[in-house]
Specification:
The protein is mainly α and about 425 residues long. It contains 19 helices and no strands. The two termini are about 25 Å apart. This is Benzoate transport.
Length: about 425
């Protein structure tokens, strides 16, 4: 039997069940991210009424949460490559939990905005650190599948928000909903006690410790180390930007689109949005399987083409049943690709810069994606929601070009 190197099988030599525990920790962290964002979308009308906020101020709560997430993603990515995946993931979850809980005590717009921004900083680190942790814990032939499970964590959080917020908000109010944000503090305790650092990262840290200080790797420079790496970094940044722009542009406005265009109640809008989220979950799961079997590039290209078609189709649907089924089908392609970024980015960069690459490149996309709701809202005001959604489909053509021209195929590559 041929021996498998630790790089090809990073789980080798780890404690029994380690890969599963690392996956659970990463999924839980990213689930909180998804729950928080959609919960905020549902709560904005209640917060605005209670604190007398205008539309610009209400939108600012979302925008500054994303601004904080971008800053946190970059900062915590660098810290994770320096101090460890598990340790820094714990910091991000605790920061999110504490400042989300403080939102329940906000007396006005100013302090609420501060709490939301700092909570966003905590949220920003969870995606990239979790993806790096899972990539380093799972064997190469299951890497995309395991990464897709982390992506499913976001969908689980969004689905929970779509189903629970309309039910709980009338009972406990927006302050009570924010108070629930303290629950993730227990998750951070689980992460710190039950998950150790990946063997791959520990070995890397030992090598760095033995090296002179002036030889310490500089993760940000490693994203543009040479022409090939720079092209890949630009390509991944484009993919992440389209991903986030399309997702936020769609999900932030979907409840309002269903309500305004078809007269759906808050509960019905939540259920129809949940169908779209359910489709996204199926798409993520299938993406991981396809990417491990056929390769990263073929899977991305198939989903990107599907997104172009389905967003246009959905914009022309009018009956409740068609919107339900069409929303699920659209969700498969629009957000299924989130299942592939963890494996793709992990295979493009070394251990010294892996978490930095995950968080910096994805959060560049999140920064661009923050303009998605603004662009869709502006187009909807000038034309219609249906027209705005149809125009949204055009950005996936850019995605296809970036994949074809800039992204190399690295399926099954050993991590170094």
């Amino acid at each position: 039997m041929t021996a498998v190197s630790p790089s090809a099988n990073p789980a080798a030599g780890a404690q029994p069940g380690y890969a599963a525990r690392a996956l659970v920790a990463s999924v839980l962290g990213y689930a909180m991210d998804g729950f928080d964002l959609l919960m905020l979308g549902f709560m904005l009308p209640a917060i605005s009424a209670d604190l007398h906020l205008g539309p610009a101020q209400a939108g600012g709560l979302v925008t500054w949460t994303l601004v904080g997430a971008v800053a946190g993603g970059i900062g915590f990515g660098l810290l994770s490559d320096r101090f460890g995946r598990v340790r820094v993931l714990t910091w991000t979850i605790l920061l999110f939990a504490v400042f989300t809980g403080l939102c329940a005590l906000a007396r006005g717009y100013a302090d609420l905005l501060v709490y939301r921004t700092i909570a966003g900083i905590g949220l920003g680190g969870e995606f990239g650190i979790g993806m790096a942790l899972v990539a380093e814990a799972w064997p190469a032939h299951l890497r995309a599948r395991a990464s897709s499970y982390v992506g499913l964590g976001w969908q689980a959080g969004v689905l929970a928000a779509a189903l629970l917020t309309p039910l709980l908000l009338p009972l406990i109010g927006w302050r009570g909903m924010f108070a629930l944000g303290l629950v993730p503090a227990a998750v951070s305790f689980f992460v710190r006690r039950r998950v150790e650092e990946p063997a791959l990262f520990v070995a890397h840290s030992e090598r760095v410790t033995q090296a002179a200080r002036e030889q310490r790797p500089r993760p940000l420079r490693m994203l543009v180390a040479d022409a090939r790496t720079t092209r890949a970094s630009v390509g991944v940044a484009v993919l992440c930007s389209v991903q986030n722009f399309g997702y936020y542009g769609l999900m932030i406005w979907l409840p309002a689109y269903l309500s305004k265009s078809f007269g759906y109640t808050l509960t019905k809008s939540g259920l129809w949005t949940a169908a779209t989220v359910g489709g996204m979950a199926v798409g993520i799961w299938l993406f991981g399987i396809a990417a491990d079997r056929f390769g990263r590039r073929p899977a991305f290209l198939f989903y990107q083409a599907g997104a172009v078609v389905m967003v246009i189709v959905y914009a022309h649907l009018t009956t409740p049943f068609a919107l339900l089924v069409g929303g699920a089908a659209m969700g498969v392609f629009v957000n299924g690709m989130i299942g592939g970024y963890g494996a793709l980015i992990s295979e493009l960069y070394p251990t010294a810069a892996r978490a930095t690459a995950q968080n910096v490149l994805f959060n560049i996309g999140r920064a661009v994606g923050g303009f998605g709701p603004l662009a869709v809202g502006a187009l909807a005001a000038r034309f219609s929601f249906g027209a705005a959604l149809a125009m949204l489909a055009s950005i996936y053509v850019l995605d296809i070009l970036a994949t074809l021209l800039l992204i190399p195929e690295r399926r099954g590559a050993a991590l170094d």
